[in-house]
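does this look right to u?? iron/sulfur cluster version
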Amino acid sequence: MKLSMFPQVFSQMFKKPWTNKFPAKYQPSSTTKYLQDVQAGKATISPPVKTPTGFRGKIQYDKEKCIGCKLCINVCPCGAIEFKPEEKKVKFYLARCCFCSQCNDVCPVNCLSMSNEFLLADTDKYAKDLIVE
Ligand code: SF4
Ligand code: SF4
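got this back:
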């Protein structure tokens, strides 16, 4: 380790962590039982840290405002947006999305935005929560 790193390492020892223990404050003996207890109201979830300003979470889509220009599809680096020709609207597959916000930035009618929602993990990539249309 370089000597110049010491001040940085030392100052870190007195800073609070940016993360928190989520979803459980203490390691449960069984995760399945813990989640069952949460569902039954016998245990509570330790809330995640507050998202900062400008956080890029789940995409919000105002379908009515969309003019079907496909600019979002052209800039998406992940191929996460599909065009629906019959409606001239788009569909987002969040399991492919890297939350770069380029679609949001390029949309000429501002019908897209990035919300604070980030608890999107699912075993089914086509789950209702992972499709936006
Ligand atoms: S946020 Fe980025 S990766 Fe996700 S749909 Fe928009 S352009 Fe594609
Ligand atoms: S860029 Fe905006 S208006 Fe154009 S298709 Fe995408 S969501 Fe619709």
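The pocket of iron/sulfur cluster (ligand 2) is lined by residues 66-72, 90, 106-107, 109, 111-112 (CB under 6 Å). idk if thats expected tbh
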